């Protein structure tokens, strides 16, 4: 079967893509409501199951995954999905133009303490060599982050916020809960190039490699150290929250290599976290790297692949990378 040419909006964004993002938002509004209901509707706490990453699944992880999965697969725009909570990809409509990878509820450890959580999504094109009707396989998802046609997150905090890029800058929208619609609240997010704020889980310090040890030590030395200025530290334990702060006021975020865990030296997932956040950060003028290469240039080798992540304000990321040279 031949493919139909995509219908474009005036600004060049494909109409099907807009409809797909709306589908994601419909699911996220539901997730936002359930996160808010929390104890009142019995959705806090864990299930007895583990996901493929060997992590215990929270009830809200499972619920959020189901909502997104069902709505995306029924939408008609999605050929297949991959989720942090699913072992394998799941196929949808044969005519769909897009593949969607998502982390349904990032920041699981925050769920039960009424702290920040979020949904992260990455939208990829169905590879050109796939015709409508061809089966989609895991390898179709193994595309570099640069191929993403859109990415974003919805953050469930005091307000519910969408950060979205379709490759033309980053926009923020706030959910107006009285009307149920996401309203544009920042149409051109720009990350300050310099910062005095860093985010790292310092409890892992013993297992960082030498360059990260030296970099963080110099940050902590403050005004009297080589950096000559005082740095502040923040850690939300939810990448969505940390990235959102960086989009709002700059900063550097890193989850580096763990040398003491040979079996799993990296924490963050390439397809569900690093790539979608990477595109947002780059589109807002920041930098993203593993310490060795730009995250968006990585050729993925597995669906649930994990990578080291350094991202944020351009100049600060460059300084950090200088320690890795
Ligand atoms: P989940 O995907 O299990 O919710 O984990 C969240 C996360 O991947 C990311 O959002 C945080 O930055 C990071 O883990 C927090 O990790 P620590 O618990 O090791 O600080």
Short description:
The chain is an alpha+beta fold.
Structure write-up:
The protein is α+β, with helices and mostly antiparallel strands and 325 residues long. It folds into 2 domains: 15-186, Fructose-1,6-Bisphosphatase, subunit A, domain 1 (Fructose-1,6-Bisphosphatase, Chain A, domain 1, 2-Layer Sandwich); 197-324, D-Maltodextrin-Binding Protein, domain 2 (3-Layer(aba) Sandwich), CATH 3.40.190.80. The chain contains 6 helices and 17 strands. The strands form 4 sheets. The chain has an 8-stranded mixed sheet, with helices on both faces. A hairpin with a 6-residue loop joins strand 3 (78-83) and strand 4 (90-91). Helix 1 (15-37) packs antiparallel against helix 2 (59-74). The longest helix has 23 residues, at 15-37. It starts with 14 loop residues before the first helix and ends with a helix. Bound molecules: 1,6-di-O-phosphono-alpha-D-fructofuranose (AFP). 1,6-di-O-phosphono-alpha-D-fructofuranose is lined by residues 55, 103, 106-109, 201, 237-239, 255, 267-268. The site of 1,6-di-O-phosphono-alpha-D-fructofuranose has 13 residues, from strand 5.
């Amino acid at each position: 079967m031949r493919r139909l040419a995509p219908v474009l909006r005036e600004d060049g964004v494909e109409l099907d893509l807009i409809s797909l993002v709306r589908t994601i938002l419909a699911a996220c509004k539901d997730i936002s409501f359930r996160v808010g209901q929390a104890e009142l509707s019995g959705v806090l706490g864990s299930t007895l199951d583990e996901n493929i990453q060997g992590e215990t699944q929270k009830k809200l992880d499972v619920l959020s995954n189901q909502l997104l999965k069902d709505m995306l697969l029924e939408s008609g725009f999605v050929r297949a999905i991959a989720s942090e909570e699913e072992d394998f990809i799941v196929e949808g409509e044969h005519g769909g133009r897009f593949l969607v990878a998502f982390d349904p509820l990032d920041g699981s450890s925050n769920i039960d303490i009424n702290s920040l959580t979020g949904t992260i999504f990455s939208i990829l094109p169905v590879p050109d060599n796939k015709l409508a009707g061809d089966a989609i396989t895991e390898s179709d998802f193994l595309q570099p982050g640069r191929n993403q046609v859109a990415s974003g997150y919805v953050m469930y905090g005091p307000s519910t916020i969408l950060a979205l890029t379709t490759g033309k800058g980053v926009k923020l929208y706030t959910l107006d809960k009285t009307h149920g619609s996401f309203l544009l609240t920042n149409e051109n997010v720009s990350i300050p190039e310099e910062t005095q704020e860093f985010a790292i889980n310092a409890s892992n310090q013993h297992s960082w490699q030498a360059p990260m040890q030296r970099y963080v030590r110099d940050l902590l030395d403050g005004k009297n150290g080589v950096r000559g200025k005082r740095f502040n530290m923040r850690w939300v334990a939810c990448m969505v929250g940390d990235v959102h702060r960086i989009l709002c006021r700059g900063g550097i975020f890193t989850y580096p290599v763990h040398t003491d865990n040979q079996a799993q030296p990296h924490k963050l997932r390439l397809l569900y976290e690093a790539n979608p956040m990477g595109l947002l950060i780059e589109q807002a003028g920041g930098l993203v790297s593993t310490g060795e290469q730009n995250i968006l240039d990585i050729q993925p080798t597995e669906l649930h692949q994990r990578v080291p992540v350094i991202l944020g304000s351009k100049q600060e990321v460059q300084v950090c990378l200088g320690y890795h040279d």
